[in-house]
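Recall the central idea of this unit: under ordinary conditions, the amino acid sequence of a chain determines the structure it adopts. In this exercise we apply that idea directly, starting from the sequence alone.
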Amino acid sequence: MEQNGLPKPTRDLAQAARDIKAHGLCMVEGVLEGETLRRVREALYRAADDDKARGRERKFGLDYAHDETNQRVWNVLSRDPVFSDLVEHPAALELLRSVIGWPALLGNISANITGPGGGEMVLHADQIFVPEPWPAEPQGVNVCWCVDDFTEENGATRMVPGSHLRHRNPQAGEAGEATLPMEAPAGTMIVMEARVWHKTGHNATADKRRAGIFAWYTRPIYRTQENWFLALDPSVKEFASDTMLELLGYKTQGLGLVYGASPV
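Accordingly, the structure predicted from this sequence is:
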């Protein structure tokens, strides 16, 4: 089912998987609730405020080097154990497996916080790094956790539903392609396969920040965006499950071996 061209929110993961196949994306409602959502939100904004206080804010290519209202918080996996729970959330992993299978790598988990007056991101597909012509299937999955309510007014991620079926990056003349806002309450999980076109929306509010956490997973042949071997807090690896060790590349199947065997 569609609503304004977007798939309807659902709690049925089988339906969510069908939505990804048909539209390139899905919305799973109520995945984070109550105390869990509160902990995630507090941990994220604490990390963001700490980066500001220490003068270590970072921007990234497709983001807004010119837009000081936007803040990217990198390597949140090292900032609080609650983010490990998001990476391994059963609903996220079930949909990940339905799109790109297993094994997979966690390429990155970071947050995007758009502030009052924040501008739009460039329209793009997440597998922009894959040379064209693209392989027949998507090469990654982006799982967005809505930390705050996503509304059109506060800059909700804007989508071009069905654009994954074009099987290519947006071209120069398509920057103005019509998009739809992914409006969703805090706690919603939005899953996008890597070919669907999207961008951060314009935050037209006078005083509201809007945060989303983005966990980017790829097939295991791709280098991770975040270099976990250099960036990761050692305690994360020390207490990681086997699933997390596989996602980070410490426990491997066929690639990244040491003397012919998995390093862990």
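Residues 2-248 form a domain with the Jelly Rolls fold (CATH 2.60.120.620).
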